[in-house]
User: Which sequence fits this backbone?
C-alpha cells in the first residue's frame, strides 16, 4: 500500500479514540484485546507510511523558462 | 468653546482612573490594527515635504481636493524596489497600510509601492479584475479545497533556477523528507511569464500523481510580480482540481493569485510549511499514542485480571463452603436414614404385634361367638322341636275336641233336623261350621308354616 493510500490522519484519530477508551478502563478483556489488535494494525500501517526515506526530486523544465531574479 | 465644569476647581474628582499616554497610544494602535480591514490598500494624493533618510523616505500626502494630509513613510527595503522616484508636487497612488507610531502618537501610511497617477491605469485594471473575480465568487471561502494532510507528491510551479525552488525544497523536506517534489519549471516574470505559468499549472494539474500544487517565487519589485495578477494565471489557479498553495514575493506582497489559491502562503519557505506536515511531530504523536495504548491496555488487563482473580478466589471460597454444606447435608441425610430405619423397624414391629394381638383377640371373639351361636341354635332347634311336638299335640287335642264337639252338635242337629222343621237351618249352620273349621285349620296350618319359616 502506498503512502498516499493510507488515511494517516484518520488512523491517528482512531488510535486516539482507542487510547482514550483503554484509559477510561470501561471495557472488558475481550473488547480491550480487540482494540489492542486494531491499534496494532493501525500502528504497523502508520509506521510503514511514516518511516520513509528521502523523497524523490523530479524536475520538468518548461520550454521558455527564464531565470528568476534573485533578491 | 465649551468649558468642562471641572476646570477651574483646585481638586478634580473622576469616576474612572486616568490613562497614561503610553496606555492610550497602545490602545489606539490596537484599535487601528483590529480595524485594518476597514482601510483601503490604495490611497491617492499629492506628495509634499519629501525627506529622504538612509532608512527610508518621509513625505506628506495631501488630499487632491482639500487640505487634509497624512504623513507617509517608505522604508528603504521598499524604496529600493520602487522604480519611480518620489517627487514633491506629484499626484500619486500609493499602496500602503495605516500604521500608528505609538512612541510619537502619530498616524501614518506605511507605503509599500508608489505610482504617479499617470501610471494608475494598471492599478485600476487590477481592482476591476479583483471585483470581477470577487463577483464570480473565486475568492469565496466555501470554494477553497482542503490540502491533503499527508501529500505524497507536491507539484511545484516555479523557476528551476531561482532561490524560491531551494527555499521551498529545504522547507518541505525539512518537515517531510519522504515527500516527492516535482518541479514544473516556469518563467515567473516577464512577458512570457503568464503563459509559462499557466502551462506548467495545467501540466501539474493533469498529473495524477500530484496531490498538491504549489505556485511560488521569491520577492521582487511589483512589476516583476505582476504576472501573478494577470487574469489567465489567476483563473488557471482557480480552475485547478488539485488543491493549490500560492506564495509570491515577501510577506507584504499581495497578488490575486494568492487570493484565489486554496491556501496562500507568505514566502516559498512558508509554502513548504503550509504544504507539508511536520513528520517528526507526527511520529512523536504516534509514539505518544502508542505509549498511551500500551499503558492503557496493560492497566485494563491488569485491573480486569485482578478483578477476575478476586472473583475466582471468592468462587473457590464459596465452592469450599458449598462442599462443606453438602457434606454436612449428606451426613445429616445418612443420620436421618439411620433414624428412619430404626424408627421404621420399631414402629413396624410394634404395630405388627398390635395387629397380631387384635387378630388373635378377634379370632377368639369370633370363635366364642360361633360357639355361643351354635349353642343358641342347638337350643333353638331343641325348643322348636319341643314346640312342634306341643303344637302337634295341642292341635290333635284341639281338633279332636272340636271334632267331637262338632260331631255331637252335628248329631244333635241331625236329630233336630230330623225332628224339627229347622233341619234346613241346622244344615246351613253345619255348613257354616264346617267352613269355620276349615278356615281355622287353614289358619293353623298357615301359622305353623310361618312359624317354621321364621325359624329357618
Assistant:
Amino acid at each position: 500500500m502506498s503512502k498516499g493510500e493510507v488515511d494517516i490522519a484518520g488512523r491517528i484519530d482512531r488510535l486516539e479514540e482507542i487510547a482514550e477508551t483503554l484509559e477510561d478502563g470501561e471495557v472488558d478483556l475481550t473488547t480491550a484485546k480487540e482494540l489492542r489488535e486494531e491499534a496494532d494494525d493501525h500502528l504497523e500501517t502508520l509506521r510503514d507510511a511514516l518511516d520513509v526515506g528521502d523523497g524523490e526530486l523530479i524536475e520538468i523544465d518548461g520550454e521558455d523558462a527564464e531565470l528568476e531574479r534573485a533578491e | 468653546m465649551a468649558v468642562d465644569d471641572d476646570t477651574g476647581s483646585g481638586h478634580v474628582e473622576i469616576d474612572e482612573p486616568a490613562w497614561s499616554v503610553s496606555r492610550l497610544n497602545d490602545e489606539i494602535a490596537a484599535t487601528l490594527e483590529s480595524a485594518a480591514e476597514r482601510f483601503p490598500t490604495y490611497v491617492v494624493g499629492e506628495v509634499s515635504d519629501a525627506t529622504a533618510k538612509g532608512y527610508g523616505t518621509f513625505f506628506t500626502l495631501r488630499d487632491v481636493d482639500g487640505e487634509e494630509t497624512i504623513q507617509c513613510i517608505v522604508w528603504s527595503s521598499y524604496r529600493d524596489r520602487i522604480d519611480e522616484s518620489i517627487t514633491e508636487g506629484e499626484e500619486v497612488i500609493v499602496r500602503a497600510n495605516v500604521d500608528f507610531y505609538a512612541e510619537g502618537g502619530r498616524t501614518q501610511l506605511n507605503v509599500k509601492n508608489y505610482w504617479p497617477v499617470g501610471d494608475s491605469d494598471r492599478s485600476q485594471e487590477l481592482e476591476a479584475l479583483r471585483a470581477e473575480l470577487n463577483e464570480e465568487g473565486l475568492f469565496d471561502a466555501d470554494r477553497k479545497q482542503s490540502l491533503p494532510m499527508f501529500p505524497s507528491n507536491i507539484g511545484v510551479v516555479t523557476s528551476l533556477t531561482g532561490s524560491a525552488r531551494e527555499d521551498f525544497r529545504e522547507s518541505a523536506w525539512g518537515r517531510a523528507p519522504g515527500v516527492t517534489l516535482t518541479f514544473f519549471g516556469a518563467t515567473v516574470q516577464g512577458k512570457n511569464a503568464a503563459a509559462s505559468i499557466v502551462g506548467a499549472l495545467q501540466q501539474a494539474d493533469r498529473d495524477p500523481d500530484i496531490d498538491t500544487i504549489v505556485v511560488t517565487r521569491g520577492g521582487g519589485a511589483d512589476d516583476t510580480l505582476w504576472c501573478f495578477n494577470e487574469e489567465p494565471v489567476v483563473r488557471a489557479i482557480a480552475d485547478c482540481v488539485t488543491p493549490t498553495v500560492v506564495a509570491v514575493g515577501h510577506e507584504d506582497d499581495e497578488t490575486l493569485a494568492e487570493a484565489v489559491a486554496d491556501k496562500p502562503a507568505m514566502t516559498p519557505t512558508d509554502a513548504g510549511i503550509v504544504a507539508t506536515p511536520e513528520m517528526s511531530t507526527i511520529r512523536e504523536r504516534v509514539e505518544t499514542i502508542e505509549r498511551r495504548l500500551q499503558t492503557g491496555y496493560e492497566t485494563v488487563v491488569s485491573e480486569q485480571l485482578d478483578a477476575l482473580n478476586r472473583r475466582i478466589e471468592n468462587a473457590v471460597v464459596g465452592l469450599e463452603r458449598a462442599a462443606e454444606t453438602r457434606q454436612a447435608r449428606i451426613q445429616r441425610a445418612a443420620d436421618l436414614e439411620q433414624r428412619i430405619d430404626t424408627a421404621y423397624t420399631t414402629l413396624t414391629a410394634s404395630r405388627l404385634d398390635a395387629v397380631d394381638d387384635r387378630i388373635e383377640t378377634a379370632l377368639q371373639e369370633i370363635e366364642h361367638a360361633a360357639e355361643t351361636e351354635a349353642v343358641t341354635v342347638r337350643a333353638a332347634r331343641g325348643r322348636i322341636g319341643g314346640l312342634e311336638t306341643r303344637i302337634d299335640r295341642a292341635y290333635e287335642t284341639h281338633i279332636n275336641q272340636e271334632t267331637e264337639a262338632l260331631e255331637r252338635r252335628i248329631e244333635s242337629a241331625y236329630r233336630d233336623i230330623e225332628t224339627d222343621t229347622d233341619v234346613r237351618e241346622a244344615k246351613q249352620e253345619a255348613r257354616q261350621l264346617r267352613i269355620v273349621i276349615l278356615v281355622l285349620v287353614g289358619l293353623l296350618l298357615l301359622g305353623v308354616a310361618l312359624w317354621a319359616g321364621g325359624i329357618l
Notes: The mean pLDDT of chain B is 86.
